[in-house]
Amino acid sequence: MVEELHLKVEPHPDPYKLSWLKKGNDVHVNKRCLVQFSIGTHYKDEIMCDVVPMDACHLLLGRPWLYDRRVIYDGFKNTYSFVKEGVKIILAPCRMEDKSKAVTGEGSSYLSKSQFL
User: Fold this and answer.
1) How far apart are CA 85 and CA 76, in angstroms?
2) Same domain assignment for residues 52 and 9
3) Contacts of 7 (CB under 8 A, 6+ apart)
4) For a FRET experiment, which of 69, 73, 76, 87 has its CA 20 to 30 Å from that of 39?
5) Which CDD domains match (predicted)?
């Protein structure tokens, strides 16, 4: 994602190794970048992300993001909720019918998988 979107990377101030990400090999984390993203129409954010090669997803929101935003996870509903600028945001899994529809058009910053590749 970093290469495709030409995001500006910088040296990581505290490089480290990840052993759990790729079995048998250490992944060296020595770069980071600022990523602006949105989820839906109401939530926009930017976070400093460590850059690592991954096949699982493009952006992994982990414990620092959860902690900084005081996110509450509901295991029964499989939702994450938090308050941003006085507005309650609830993140839920995509419904199956939503996954087949690509958001495109003028002014859209969303890419289909084929456009991204």
Assistant:
1) 26
2) yes
3) 1, 33, 34, 35
4) 76
5) retropepsin_like
Q: Is residue 44 part of a domain?
A: yes
Place of tokens 């289909």: 112
Same domain, 20 and 55: yes
Q: Same domain, yes or no, for 2 and 54?
A: yes
Return phi, psi of residue 87, to 5°. -110, 130
Burial of 49 (0-12, 13-18, 19+ CB in 10 A): buried
- Quote the CA–CA distance of 82 and 47 in Å, as a whole number: 16
Residue 109 to residue 78: CA distance in whole angstroms: 27
Residue 106 lies in a domain: no
CB atoms within 10 A of CB 32: 19
Per-residue pLDDT tens digits for 83-92: 988 889 998 8
CB of 73 closer than 8 Å to CB of 61: no
Tell me: the pLDDT tens digits for 32-74? 999 998 887 778 899 999 998 877 777 888 888 899 999 999 9
